[in-house]
Amino acid sequence: VYIETVPRPNMTLSAPYNQVCLGYSVPITVEGAMYYSWSPIFGLSAITGSVSHASPAITTDIRLGAVDANR
């Protein structure tokens, strides 16, 4: 059995606002890894990639998964 432990990516997340009003959108940008996965799928302009625009219809927690070059 071979087990490899790799460090977590050191990511930087940025958005011009930490809240968005109904009917508006806010861009969320992340860097520091190679691949990204955003959720939930509703209220986001993209579910993969380093940029997604959030325009949720209700209060929503946005989750981000990331994988860097190590795996």
Overview of this protein structure:
- The chain has 71 residues and is mostly beta strands.
- The protein is 0% helix and 32% strand.
- It has strands at residues 12-14, 26-31, 35-39, 51-54, 63-67.
- The protein starts with 11 loop residues before the first strand and ends with a strand.
Q: How would you briefly describe this protein structure?
A:
With 71 residues, the protein is mostly beta strands.
What is the strand and helix layout of this fold?
Elements: E1 12-14, E2 26-31, E3 35-39, E4 51-54, E5 63-67
Antiparallel strand pairs: 1-2, 2-4, 3-5
Keywords:
32% strand, single chain, 0% helix, elongated, mainly beta, 71 residues
Largest sheet: 3 strands, antiparallel
Instruction: Classify the secondary structure makeup into a structural class.
Output: mainly beta
Measured as a percent range, the helix fraction is under 10%
Q: Given the C-alpha coordinates, what overall shape results?
A: elongated
The number of distinct β-strands equals: 5
- Given as residue ranges, the uncertain stretches (5+ residues, pLDDT < 50) are none
Strand order, sheet with most strands: 1-2-4
Order of helices and strands: EEEEE
By DSSP (H or I, 4+ residues per run), the number of helices equals: 0
Percentage of residues in strands: 25-35%
Mean pLDDT figure: 88
Distance between the termini: 18 Å
